[in-house]
């Protein structure tokens, strides 16, 4: 699929809906200086073209039992494509794994995992290792606090320099 050409209206809209996707088209129209129907058409096109992949809610951890967050560095024994694909599918399917990155360096994957407690985390990691024999080692960092959390991708306006 070709990369979609974004104009400044699209870019403004993407920044606004990333900050708060619950805004009405009327509110977005006020901020972008387009009509609500134009906003609706643009949002539909951005979704259809795969620019907006999914809209989700950011939940306050304290309000749902203060789950713990773990940052995990995962190493595999062999980087054979079929073994990596099996591991990727397993990681994608596991709801407690919020993010998974295939990386360079010491680790092969870096994961962000959430669990209500360390016992639940330990059980998850035991299952990961037993169901994925290609995983050779993992190290865990326990988050002591949240400084920043989000998935926003800064979308510079055409007149701005890219970061």
TrEMBL record:
<dbReference type="InterPro" id="IPR019887">
    <property type="entry name" value="Tscrpt_reg_AsnC/Lrp_C"/>
</dbReference>
<dbReference type="InterPro" id="IPR000485">
    <property type="entry name" value="AsnC-type_HTH_dom"/>
</dbReference>
<dbReference type="Pfam" id="PF13412">
    <property type="entry name" value="HTH_24"/>
</dbReference>
<keyword id="KW-0805">Transcription regulation</keyword>
<dbReference type="Pfam" id="PF01037">
    <property type="entry name" value="AsnC_trans_reg"/>
</dbReference>
<dbReference type="GO" id="GO:0005829">
    <property type="term" value="C:cytosol"/>
</dbReference>
<dbReference type="InterPro" id="IPR036388">
    <property type="entry name" value="WH-like_DNA-bd_sf"/>
</dbReference>
<keyword id="KW-0804">Transcription</keyword>
<protein>
    <submittedName>
        <fullName>AsnC family transcriptional regulator</fullName>
    </submittedName>
</protein>
<dbReference type="InterPro" id="IPR036390">
    <property type="entry name" value="WH_DNA-bd_sf"/>
</dbReference>
<dbReference type="GO" id="GO:0043565">
    <property type="term" value="F:sequence-specific DNA binding"/>
</dbReference>
<dbReference type="InterPro" id="IPR019888">
    <property type="entry name" value="Tscrpt_reg_AsnC-like"/>
</dbReference>
<feature type="domain" description="HTH asnC-type">
    <location>
        <begin position="6"/>
        <end position="67"/>
    </location>
</feature>
<keyword id="KW-0238">DNA-binding</keyword>
<dbReference type="InterPro" id="IPR011008">
    <property type="entry name" value="Dimeric_a/b-barrel"/>
</dbReference>
<dbReference type="GO" id="GO:0043200">
    <property type="term" value="P:response to amino acid"/>
</dbReference>
């Amino acid at each position: 699929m070709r990369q979609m050409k974004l104009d400044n209206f699209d870019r403004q809209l993407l920044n606004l809906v990333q900050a708060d996707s619950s805004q009405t088209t009327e509110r977005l129209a006020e901020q972008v200086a387009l009509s609500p129907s134009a906003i609706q058409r643009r949002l539909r096109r951005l979704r259809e073209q795969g620019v907006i992949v999914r809209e989700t809610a950011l939940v306050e951890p304290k309000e749902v039992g203060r789950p713990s967050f773990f940052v995990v560095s995962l190493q595999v024994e062999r980087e054979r494509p079929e073994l990596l694909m099996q591991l990727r599918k397993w990681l994608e399917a596991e709801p407690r794994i919020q993010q998974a990155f295939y990386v360079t360096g010491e680790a092969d994957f870096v994961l962000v995992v959430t669990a209500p407690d360390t016992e639940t985390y330990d059980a998850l990691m035991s299952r990961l290792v037993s169901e994925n024999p290609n995983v050779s080692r993992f190290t865990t960092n326990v988050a002591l606090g949240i400084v920043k959390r989000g998935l926003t991708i800064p979308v510079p306006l055409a007149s701005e320099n890219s970061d």
